[in-house]
Amino acid sequence: MHDEHASIDRRMVLAGLGGLLAGGTLGSPSLLASDQSGSLPGYLPEEAWKGEPAVMSGRAPFDLSDPMQNWFALMKSTNNLVGARTYVPMFMRVFFGPQGKAPFPLYTSFGMWTWQLQRPEPGQFKDLQRDDVIQRALYTGVICDPWTFEPVDRLYIPYTDTTVETRDSLFGESWLLRSGGRGYEGIDRPGFRSVDEERQRRGTPYVRFGEDVAFNIAGLLQTEGPAQPRMDGSFWTVREDELMSPEHDLVEATYSFAGVSRARERPWLGLDPDDDSQLLMNTQGRKVHSVERIPRVIQETLLKKYPDRI
Question: 224, 222, 291, 273: which is closest to 10 by C-alpha?
């Protein structure tokens, strides 16, 4: 069953580069177009996808110790610098953690981010710099059995001894990403802004691991408040030779994500408003740039149901 207002994560995220870009799939529901007739399911206005694709000035090789080049390397790893469309298909297992009781696997899911970086219009935002970009993002997720990864319409919850109807996760958001780690702003959410001064000064943490480079993004780190306490983060791992090669404009990346948030964020679970049970999301995926590279299981379980998400 589809509920266009169902929230999932990050991510969303997903979440600045951790929540949103990282499949930050633990974020609040998107602000949807009021007139959905001109929107894609989930819903972003179709006109939002007609902006000029963003081709950035940064090119490999990169000095990862330099904050601006570090940011270009991160954008190439998580997205791309040449205006191409990006897909992040993924699978996840979600665990339910009641306070003072034993946790248990609640459900699994297949999901996918569809991303497009675009050029802002001149004067659209204050203090724009050359490589600031808008990220258009669609998230699509299908709930599955906690053991078999088969899509399900109903789910048994031992904690409440109830069976509930599941809700697919479809949402869209737009974000302004400021180059050089200067932060991000939610275009759909006026006033939502995040600036990490340490990241701006030092760049995104990374580790060289054999032939690979892995960037670690701390996405949503929140205390009590309207968005409830949560934390999430992700790793984006690429081959260092491809990342540093001017010949490889599009590089694939392995994506892993973990996040903790309150279970009551998902209304379809039927929990009391003051229930403090938590969800742990454990996610693995792959960043690709063509439909052909999306794994068959995602094409069969997700894209057959929602073909307009590509």
Answer: 222
Q: Tens digit of pLDDT for each residue in 180-222?
A: 888 888 887 666 666 666 666 777 899 999 999 999 987 665 5
pLDDT in tens, 235-289: 999 999 999 999 999 999 999 999 998 898 889 999 998 899 999 999 999 999 9
User: What pTM was computed for the model?
Assistant: 0.85
Q: Which domain holds residue 267?
A: 2-309
Rounded Cα gap, residues 193 and 95, in angstroms: 30
H-helix or E-strand spanning residue 238: strand 230-239
Q: What are phi and psi of 68, to 5 degrees?
A: -70, -45
Of 36, 46, 18, 51, nearest to 235 by C-alpha is 18
Q: Quick one: tokens of 169?
A: 């996760």
Tell the residue number behind the tokens 């759909």, with chain if given.
Answer: 188
Structural domain count of the chain: 1
CB distance 116 to 86 below 8 Å: yes
